[in-house]
Amino acid sequence: QVRLVESGGGLVQPGGSLRLSCTASGSIYRINAMGWYRQPPGKERELVASIADDGSVNYADAVKGRFTISRDNGKNTVYLQMNSLKPDDTAVYYCNVDANEAWPTYRPRTAWGQGTQVTVSS
């Protein structure tokens, strides 16, 4: 059992900032990577940013320089600091975890958060 709980979404004006949080819980042996995806209205879900167990990060070109992903391994929490927000950033943001379940299986598991709405509008 792996669960993700997200928070931090909301309505913000263009140029504003938001910080998303996502905490993983459950029968987790280890977390290999965590990331953020988003799904704008009428579009497909896309990767925004990810962070691996070694701390390496990856960003979509559209958010590079504006968004920062970070992770607190002790809390199994990943954050997404979003600055200089644009209307095109409006989407439902989903947290994702690539993990291994705990004993007895240690099997790979992917889990998704419930989604949090980010709306950038005047």
Care to give the gist of this entry?
The protein has 122 residues and is mostly beta strands. The chain has strands at residues 2-7, 10-12, 18-26, 28-39, 46-52, 57-59, 67-72, 77-82, 91-101, 108-112, 116-120.
Explain what you see:
The chain is mostly beta strands and 122 residues long. The protein has strands at 2-7, 10-12, 18-26, 28-39, 46-52, 57-59, 67-72, 77-82, 91-101, 108-112, 116-120.
Secondary structure layout:
Blueprint: E1 2-7, E2 10-12, E3 18-26, E4 28-39, E5 46-52, E6 57-59, E7 67-72, E8 77-82, E9 91-101, E10 108-112, E11 116-120
Parallel strand pairs: 2-11
Antiparallel strand pairs: 1-3, 3-8, 4-5, 4-9, 5-6, 7-8, 9-10, 9-11
Shape: elongated
Could you give a short account of the major beta sheet? Answer: 7 strands, mixed
The CA-CA distance between the termini, in Å, is 40 Å
Report mean pLDDT, rounded to a whole number.
96
Element order, helices and strands?
EEEEEEEEEEE
- Beta-strand content: over 45%
- Helix coverage percent: under 10%
What is the helix tally? 0
Poorly predicted runs are none
Structural class of the secondary structure composition?
A: mainly beta
CA radius of gyration is 14 Å
- The total count of strands amounts to 11
Protein traits:
122 residues; mainly beta; seven-stranded mixed β-sheet; four-stranded antiparallel β-sheet; 11 strands; 0% helix
